[in-house]
Amino acid sequence: MHFDTIYNQVLLVLQASILVLAALFPIVNPIGSAAVYLAMVQNVDASTQLKLAKRITMYSFVLLIASMLFGGKILSFFGISLYSVQIGGGLIVAANGWLLLNKDASKDRAAMPNPEAVLAQAFYPYTLPITVGPGSISVAVALGAHLPSEFHVRSFISPGILISSLLGTIVTCAIVYICYRWAKPAADLLGKSGTTVLMRLSSFISFCIGIQILTSGIRAYIDVLR
């Protein structure tokens, strides 16, 4: 009986971890986010980029876990709906994508950003909304609300659910770190022309993602009014 209990707990942790990873990975989209990130830090020195990647990874982990644990309660306390988060976040992501799309590369090459100023922006905008945007927060809040009922446990802080959520989030953030850490070497392999094309394309995709998040929020708001 004791062995069966342990086996069931391990199975629950594995299943929930895979569910968390499968839910977060597509919406966080580390590869696409890394391309946008690279467009913003292409003139930053390697050591600062390494520090920045570590901070973004740490902030992303904290933000996702906090959204799972407290996101629903915080939104409810302030009377904020998920569609409001989507509308506001979508506007920010779209505006950032538009700025990157119209960025003058020749002026960027002439300007060398201050490392301290770059690191001060690790949370905003590099973590929120570039890496963990409103879509990711919405998914994390939904996971925190539905995982307990999905696996028939009392609350999100039940050991099995909490451990699996930590594991799934850690794996997601580890992939974010790998993609951001090696974004510059990957761009060097592509060459100058390839990198320019990738950056413009990723900026356009970021703009489109922002519009998609915005329209999803507006659609949800219209549905509530009906």
Automatic annotation (TrEMBL):
The chain crosses the membrane at residues 12-40, 52-71, 77-101, 122-144, 156-180, 201-222. It comes from the Bacteria. Keywords: Cell membrane, Membrane, Transmembrane, Transmembrane helix. It is found in: Cell membrane. The keyword Transmembrane helix applies. It is a multi-pass membrane protein. The keyword Transmembrane applies. It holds the Pfam family MarC. PANTHER family: UPF0056 MEMBRANE PROTEIN YHCE (PTHR33508). Belongs to the UPF0056 (MarC) family. This is UPF0056 membrane protein. It comes from Acidicapsa dinghuensis.
